[in-house]
Amino acid sequence: MKSIIFIAPPAAGKGTQSKLISKKYNIPHISIGDLLRYSINSEDESSKKINEYMEKGLLVSDDIILNLLKNRLKQQDCISGYILDGFPRNVNQAKEYDKLLEKLDKDLGLVILLDIDKEILKNRIVGRLSCNKCGSVYNELIKETKPKNVGLCDKCNLKLSKRIDDNEETFEMRYNTYLKETEPLINYYDDKGCLYRVNANINADLIFKEIQSIIGSSI
Ligand SMILES: [Zn+2]
After folding, report:
1. pTM of the entire structure?
2. Neighbours of ion ligand 1 (CB under 5 A)
3. What CATH code would you report for 4-116+176-218?
4. Calpha distance 50→36 (Å, rounded)
5. Is 72 a catalytic residue?
6. What are 35-93's pLDDT values in tens digits?
7. How remote is the CA of residue 22 from the centroid of ligand 1, in Å?
8. Which of 65, 93, 119, 123 is deepest in the core (most CB within 10 A)?
9. Domain residue spans in the chain?
């Protein structure tokens, strides 16, 4: 089994696919967000610095992330591979990650790009609604997950709410940042010959099938 890096815009289904792969191949799903949260909660050596960045609304520095990642990848459960989610986000981080792998004597593995239409992503994010009482999530722009009555929870019949940053403007901004940072990253991995493009405009089961065949053909 090889390690897997996901490159995907927000809401492309990266989390769902990571869980499916992790379960099927019995390798850990390493999310950078989780590593940071875990570090803060366990009050380890990095937690103070991470808190400082977060309080200022800044992105945590690459050094800190690489150090957390190094400690995580050394653990026993990563020996036969892992799924990396949320890192690297740009070419600079990719180069640092290459150095880390060399130190740990590990292979890069597969880089899977979830290719998805911008309009689909936009609808997923902009139409998202949730119930504050039961936590159910709906989407007013997607037929299959629309609430039965406009704006009301199917279970509680209460008014659904929208997250303040789930709007078109914020989406455009985030999407453009993603394109700007990841396009060079895609080229970087393409040049190394380890990039696989997966059409992510289809449902999660079909995407997972496609990923399994990539994994199968690379062993
Ligand atoms: Zn509800």
Report:
1. 0.84
2. 131, 133-134, 136, 153, 155-156
3. 3.40.50.300
4. 7
5. no
6. 998 888 888 778 888 888 888 877 888 999 999 999 999 999 999 999 998 899 999 99
7. 30
8. 65
9. 4-116+176-218
